Structure formats: structure tokens, C-alpha cells
Amino acid sequence: xxxxxxxxxxxxxxxxxxxxxxxxxxxxxxxxxxxxxxxxxxxxxxxxxxxxxxxxxxxxxxxxxxxxxxxxxxxxxxxxxxxxxxxxxxxxxxxxxxxxxxxxxxxxxxxxxxxxxxxxxxxxxxxxxxxxxxxxxxxxxxxxxxxxxxxxxxxxxxxxxxxxxxxxxxxxxxxxxxxxxxxxxxxxxxxxxxxxxxxxxxxxxxxxxxxxxxxxxxxxxxxxxxxxxxxxxxxxxxxxxxxxxxxxxxxxxxxxxxxxxxxxxxxxxxxxxxxxxxxxxxxxxxxxxxxxxxxxxxxxxxxxxxxxxxxxxxxxxxxxxxxxxxxxxxxxxxxxxxxxxxxxxxxxxxxxxxxxxxxxxxxxxxxxxxxxxxxxxxxxxxxxxxxxxxxxxxxxxxxxxxxxxxxxxxxxxxxxxxxxxxxxxxxxxxxxxxxxxx
Length: 438
Hints:
With about 450 residues, the chain is of the alpha/beta class. The protein has helices at about 1-30, 35-45, 55-70, 100-115, 160-165, 170-180, 190-195, 210-215, 225-230, 250-265, 280-285, 290-305, 315, 330-345, 355-365, 375-380, 380-390, and strands at about 50, 70-75, 90-95, 120-125, 130, 190, 200, 205-210, 245, 270-275, 310.
């Protein structure tokens, strides 16, 4: 009897497990996470948004790169992901988000860029790329060979929906809507994460964080900077990964080698030391623990004369309001960077949509986001609501109070002069109007 009971229990558990896997697969299929080639084509055709957690990051980006065949691309960490197509006059795709070191850039070149070369690479560089926990000499730099781009470690696709349900990132009602095929977002959207919170990658490879930003504001605007500021000077933080950092001369030498090798293949590399908000920059540079920052910048200026050093956000013309958090610049910050490239590199100015960007920057100065591309236009109301919630009213001790204009196309803030930003001319629309989900 016991054997029969155990067999029935085992059979029931197996049926339950297989049923759960079937529901998970159906959720993935409904969300568009089961066929990368098809989804990539559909995203580009519809100018939609995607965030495919069940697909390796590089595989997803490579698929869209090959479809778009860009003449311009961007490499870097998550701090490169606000560079968008409308910044440029030629086809663009952002390959950023997965190349944090120069080894990654060489791996990207070997696996993709040398076979399908762009004309211009915007290399977004983090200052902490050039630190080491021990002395590293230029002579230790050798051209990396045989490396592969990190694919990331996506969750087993058939376990992804269940894990999201249990950790709270996917609710049962949202799962039911996905299964029913009900639209979640105001434009074609692919991937459970993008469907649920509205954050993901546009068809140009750039990232939109709107859902994540709205969640962060539940704890108040100060949370955007608090974590970074509290960790400054502490070993293990983003700007101070080690207790005794040294300048990493190997990385600087590899950057020189990468620029020269790409030039030999008729690819121009535009290296940019991307900004920190003034608040983070000033506090970090005032601490002796961060002495490596200015030391590294001095070596970079000598070895990489074409480097555009915009580490201090004010060099680009940005203030704290134009940053998402203590390290990540927003869309307007990166629009300003593109204008700086055009101003400092006349040979590259024809790649930059200067007049369009000047209008965008003038209209949305002081904001981290702008409803310009297909995703921004589709989420226009949410963008403007987010602007109203983030007027740089940080109240942390020592944070200078910053004022910010009323969001464009919204009533002036109380006490502000009438007829401010809301009366400025409409920003240029880029591309086709967003396609609505059915």
C-alpha cells in the first residue's frame, strides 16, 4: 500500500511540475521570449521596447545590431545606455551595457565589430575602469586574444516566470493579463519585465528606466543619490573598489591599442570619460581615498589626447537634475555629450544631429528624461508625471537645493512666472509614430 501511495505522490508531483513548466512556457511565449530572431525583427519593425530576461544579453543585442546595420555604435557599461539614435544623422545601434573593461571591447570587436564594422564607435568610459588594487604597468598590456563577450547568466527560461512570481517582480494579475494577451504598455513590448514595469531597451539599443525610476521615487527623490553618497570613500563602492587603488596603466595602454587597431580597420573611436553628477564629483574629489581619479586623468590626457574628459558633469553643461542617480547621467546629459563631440571634433560633426539636439537640450534642460524617441512618445504622460515628481528637492545634509523648471507642456509650478518652458516650441519628433499594441 505504501508503495502505491508513494507512486501516486510521485506521479502527482510530476504532473504538477510539468503543469507549472507548461504555464511558464506559455507565459514566455505570450511575452515574446521564446524566439529571439522573430522578436528582434518585430521590435525593429514596430519601434517597440524589449527586455528579454531569458535571453543572453549579448545575443539579444547582436541580433538587433545585425538587423539595423549601424554606421555608429556605442560601447560601455550601463552608463552608456542613454545614447540614442536621434542624436545622430546616420544609423545607430547602442551595444553598451556589457563592456565594462577594454578586454570586453576587444572581445566585442573580434565577435562582431570587425566583421560588421561601423564607421564610428563612441567609447563611453568609467573612471573606475582605470583603477587597480596593485600597481599595473603599461608593459603588462597585451592585445587580448580568444576572449568571448560575456553573455550573462540568464535564469533558466522555464523557471523565470515562477521565480518572478515568488520574488514579487511579477504579480498573479499581471501574469494573467500576459496569458490573456492583454496589452500592458502603449507600444509593442516584448519580455515579461518590459511588459510589467515599462523598463527596457528601445530598438536602437538604448535603455529606458521609467518603471524602475518610478519605483525608486516611492522612497522619495533623495533615494536617487543617497546610496552613492553614503558609500563614497568606502572600499568596495563603485568609485573605490579597493582600499588602496592604483592607476591601472594596463587599461590605459589597452585603450590606446583599441583606438589604433580600430583606426587600422577604418573605424574611428571617440573615447569619452562620461560624467558624474556635480554632487558626486565634488564629494569624491574632496576625499583622499579617491586620489587615483585625478592621477588616472592626468595619464589619460597624456596617452589618449583625443579623449573627451567630461567626468565633471558641469563640463558637459549638466547639473544634478539631469542625472538619474549618483552615477548615471540621464538622456539630456548624453545629448549634451553628443554636442560636445561635435564641437570638439569637427571631423565627426557630420555624424551628430546638432540642430535637433540643440532644440532638445534647450527645451528639456534640467530634466533627466525627454519624450523624444518612439518609447518616449508612447510614454509621454508618464514622462511628464515623473518630471513633476523630481524637481531636485533633495534634502540630504549638504545637498544644495536646486530648482528646476516646470515640465514642458505642463502648468508652471506655483510661484513660477507664467509662460515658461511650457510655451517653447514642440521638440522634433524622431522616426515613425509609435505603433500601438492591440
